[in-house]
Amino acid sequence: MSKMLKGIAASDGIAIAKAYMLVQPDLSFSQVSIEDPESEIKRLDTAVAAASEDLKLIKQKAAENLGAEEAEVFEAHLTILSDPELMGNIGDKIKNDKVNAEAALKDVTDMFISMFEGMTDNAYMQERAGDIRDVTKRVMSHLLGVSIPNPALIDQEVVVIAHDLTPSDTAQLNRKFVKGFITDVGGRTSHSAIMSRTLEIPAVVGAGNPTTAITEGDMVIVDGINGDGIINPTAEEISTYEAKAKAFSDQKAEWEELKDAKTVTADGVHFDLAANIGTPKDVAGALDNGAEAVGLFRSEFLYMDASELPSEDDQFEAYKAAVEGMNGKQVVVRTMDIGGDKELPYLPLPEEMNPFLGYRAIRISLDRQDIFRTQLRALLRASHYGQLAIMFPMIATVDEFKAAKAIYVEERTKLIDAGVPVAEKLEVGMMMEIPAAVMNGDHLAKYADFFSIGTNDLIQYSMAADRGNEQVSYLYQPYNPSILRLIKMVIDTAHKEGKWAGMCGEMAGDQIAVPILAGMGLDEFSMSASSILKTRSLMKKLDTTKMKELADKAVTDCETNEEVIALVESYMK
């Protein structure tokens, strides 16, 4: 008998495939005394050999799917496995203390990890601590006879089941085989949800307990349109969802007819529909979905997909590929937005009580100017090859924006003096995602060339509710009149100074929000590429005069999120 799971619809589409459990195994063990150390050392050697074979295969697959540079981290892991000092110490521990291999492995590797982590003046050696931790986990899994999931090795059609998906997890997913995913936690603005839309993979998040309700190999249906998951569906249910999948495919085909069309409303007003991307590879998907620009290039993924800080040349090539790929259409690059729930293993950040309110984004860039200046030089060099714009994330004050802009001007001047070509005109704007910045928008608009509203964080900070916390998820209210008033303030203050205002949060592609935002006069809507044609189809039906009336009523007459939804639905009948 089938079983239903209810979650949040994170990415449109229907997927039907067997479950792949991306769940970390229990690696707990008990220390025991042993009588035959040689036999125990042989057991260790067997586990090390098996781990080595794993890593060779993973390295090969990673090179095929991600590129040779990304795969090199696994070569470092193989080197650790063959390190005579490390392995010799583990063997000696087994012989001298007569303990089982699991206990010896943990004791010795914990010592090495602690030693490397203590080398605070040597970032390279600190990175090795993470490598040893990963290798230890793999060897331990073979000693205990349990499997560690390796998403890079997926070679058949599956639905991925996970507690949550990190950006590094999603970076390993091959769209050819991963047809959809379901997670225990998350909301529409969690990174797993955002990445599912970027990859155009149907997804249901915040589904409660799929990791315990589903077992490896179960047949699973993912309904990313309604937020449903069905475990071991009946033949009738499979038939029903195959029909739904076809209907959705037909709808997408209808939308695809708008791929080369301009985004024009029923009364002839043009808006720009742009795509959010994470890497230059996403440009193809943006163009295939009719993007008129890239409104958000999340540059942090260049850092998250590397084993060390990316060089100026590496970044330059990535930005250059994106602007050239967009064939003259604007590409807005957000400078590194690391921190919060986006961490770099090679860039240790302080432990914080509230990381989303702490050391992140522009705050790191202004503090670590070596990293920031490298990125700005790469961006400036790439600006010569297309229409590139830069925006700074997490700006809270006028002083922060001025400081970031001054560093940009310094690096621009240095490049020009050195004879390096850069674009004559390059817009420098900022994210509007902190309420304090919104309230001071009239002053910030004098210095920024444009505003881009980051609604995911703006809602989180305005409602004082962690967007990843299921217990307060009811406070993620994008249509709450208080949020709409903040958005209108951003648009109005930008226009008053003759600047443009865009939105690159998930709200930009929300079918309830779009009519209101059009009525407010938002200039650019940037969203997951898979939402563009659907939104263009909706725009064709809108009359901006009527939508302005709708927006004014939503802001002035409505008191709740639900009242705004009802108002939009009444206008759209």
Labels describing this entry:
eight-stranded parallel barrel, single chain, 573 residues, globular, eight-stranded mixed sheet, alpha/beta
General description of the model:
It is a single chain. With 573 residues, this protein is of the alpha/beta class. It is 48% helix and 14% strand. The chain has 23 helices and 16 strands. It has helices at 37-65, 68-81, 84-97, 101-117, 123-144, 167-171, 191-199, 210-213, 235-256, 283-288, 300-304, 312-325, 362-367, 369-382, 398-417, 435-439, 441-444, 455-463, 481-496, 513-520, 532-539, 544-556, 561-571, and strands at residues 3-6, 8-11, 14-22, 158-162, 178-183, 203-205, 219-223, 228-231, 272-277, 294-298, 331-334, 388-392, 428-432, 450-453, 500-503, 524-528. Strands 1-8-7-3-4-5-6-2 form an 8-stranded mixed β-sheet. The protein has an 8-stranded parallel β-barrel with strand order 9-10-11-12-13-14-15-16, surrounded by 5 helices. The longest helix is centred in the first third of the chain and has 29 residues, at 37-65. The radius of gyration is 25 Å and the shape is globular. The two termini are 40 Å apart. The model has no long low-confidence stretch (mean pLDDT 90).
